[in-house]
């Protein structure tokens, strides 16, 4: 599907006055202004999860827990997240939210944590922020559920929509890392500070991190990482949609490079 730049901007709610700057240094420049983004609030019907035998004993603080999670299948991971009691977020959740999308997707988008609506429906990014994320995907020719997987830094709804705390992020990080190992995405887009904290370990302001080159190491694989704003933040700070558009363009360029490199490697192997 080919759409014009104007159509892409329209999908993101940007008027034609927004122009992507030609200077490539824009994509590398650090922005200094940012207030903390809230965890998005978002609805839905409880989903019945498969009942499988999984590796238990996933108690907070046990040294074996990350190793146990690192060997899980998708079904085991889902069950483990449902059973998890590794932090206090489990105390008030309705259901844990692992993620949604194709389990062989090239694109991985990581948000912060489920909101009230996601807590009910069991799916990340529903409600207004979810609609904006869908528009952001459409702006670069993507669609939820088609070559896209969406996850969060924490899998349970933080009460009061508080920003995920360091201990809560730490408890869920093994789950996110296992999702990446199972997915093997070509590009990862981090939406908001909690996602950056979980995967890159940085607690800096998002404005100082976006536009910089990052990568996530998964064994011998190096996966490009793009940092941008959370859709919930963009709903409150409309001018920064233009910066998010720049980040999405950069992510799309990285995906093209990754696919071209993969194709070249495949051709070399076949020769």
Q: Give a count of the beta strands, DSSP E runs of length 2 or more.
A: 6
- Give the integer mean of the pLDDT values: 81
Spatial shape: globular
Uncertain runs are 16-61
Strand adjacency order, main sheet? 1-3-2-4-6-5
Order of helix and strand elements from N to C terminus: HHHEEHHEHEHEEHH
Number of discrete domains: 1
Q: How is the biggest beta sheet arranged?
A: 6 strands, mixed
Would you give an account of this structure?
- With 271 residues, this protein is α/β, with parallel strands linked by helices.
- The chain has one domain: Uracil-DNA glycosylase-like domain (Uracil-DNA Glycosylase, subunit E).
- The chain is built from 9 helices and 6 strands, in the order H-H-H-E-E-H-H-E-H-E-H-E-E-H-H.
- It has a 6-stranded mixed β-sheet with strand order 1-3-2-4-6-5, sandwiched between helices.
- Helix 1 packs antiparallel against helix 5 and helix 6 packs across helix 7.
- The longest helix is centred in the last third of the chain and has 30 residues.
- The protein is globular and about 45 Å long.
